[in-house]
Design brief:
Length: 335
């Protein structure tokens, strides 16, 4: 059992998962499975952004879906209405994530805990109304159609299912690598100190506002890039992309996998996507099964799957180290 536990945490397991992801297009039975998995990769990228501000910094952002929609609409408007090259428009979506995150973050992060969550919920609703009512810019409730696929390089055509799958996988890997680097850096430890308490962080000399805003902007950039990828995948978007249900979906992905962990957002997103697809034969009744399963999982694993696994493994390692230290001390006493 111990060896199995250590195997899951080893670099070999991560290499194996990456190898499975790379060969999956040859194992998939249809293009639909590839489409579902590549869409799950895009959502996982957005959840990694939520993980930075909520999992690392401890600030519950209920407007994360709005920044996802802003990235999607930025790409759609620049490519469809202004004929920008795709990758320039994609960079514009990221810039929208920076600017909108900075503006909202500077205002909202003056609030704490529930007040911050309610403020971001309102921001999400305002963005939804802007997308729905500003017809001259967003095409209103009709939404935006014929959004182009990413421009390819040479013989690579990202409008095809398999190349887009690898593109989504590449962006997800990049997002995970950046999150890993943040988590191991001084900035990551600063975020964790803020999550443990503002007073503790201030006593350590941490500039709360500056670091919270930085974490918020990083999270919105993740969301904006994920939204732009999503728009180029589905080719049609509407104001519903900013609906709060998308934010709640992303929170559910994070809670199931484990917010504040590196692999939790990926595990939660893939697991819920797989469960949702597996229960499709139940049609609208699938939520009767899916809902209680989700509740049971959250009750018995409040830290999420990855978080609970890491907690128990760390507790076991600590117990073993304590036992070894006691045995060594006992041996020295007898000698």
């Amino acid at each position: 059992m111990k060896r199995i536990s250590d195997l899951f945490a080893s670099p070999w397991m991560k290499a194996l998962l990456l190898a499975v992801a790379l060969v999956f297009p040859w194992l998939a039975e249809s293009d639909y499975q590839l489409y579902v998995l590549s869409t799950a990769f895009v959502w996982a990228l957005a959840v990694y952004g939520l993980n930075i501000i909520t999992g690392f910094c401890g600030q519950l952002n209920l407007g994360h879906g709005a920044f996802f929609a802003l990235g999607a609409y930025t790409l759609a408007i620049l490519t469809v209405d202004h004929q920008w090259p795709f990758w320039w428009a994609f960079a514009g979506a990221g810039l929208m994530g920076v600017v909108s995150g900075l503006v909202v973050g500077v205002v909202s992060l003056r609030l704490k805990e529930n007040y911050f969550a309610i403020f971001t919920l309102c921001v999400g609703f305002i963005v939804y109304l802007l997308l729905d009512k500003w017809e001259a810019l967003t095409h209103g409730a009709a939404g935006m159609m014929d959004i182009p696929a990413p421009e390819g390089f040479g013989w690579i055509d990202f409008s095809a299912t398999v190349p887009f799958y690898y593109l989504a996988l590449a962006f997800l890997m990049l997002g995970i690598w950046v999150a890993h680097r943040i988590g191991k850096s001084l900035l990551g430890r600063t975020f964790l100190a803020i999550r443990m308490g503002d007073d503790l962080a201030q006593s350590l000399g941490i500039n709360l506002m500056r670091n919270k805003v930085l974490g918020f902007v990083l999270s919105t950039v993740y969301a904006a890039f994920a939204g732009a990828l999503y728009a180029s995948s589905v080719r049609f978007i509407g104001p519903a992309e900013a609906d709060v249900t998308h934010t709640f979906d992303m929170i559910a992905y994070g809670l199931v996998g484990g917010l504040g962990t590196l692999m939790g957002p990926l595990v939660g997103t893939l697991l819920i996507t797989w469960m949702t697809q597996s229960l499709q034969f139940l049609e609208e009744f699938r939520m009767i099964v899916f809902g209680p399963l989700l509740v049971v999982l959250v009750i018995f694993m409040p830290k999420g799957i990855v978080g609970t696994y890491a907690f128990r493994r760390n507790r076991r390692i600590a117990a073993e180290l304590t036992a070894k230290a006691r045995a060594k001390e006992e041996g020295q006493r007898r000698a």
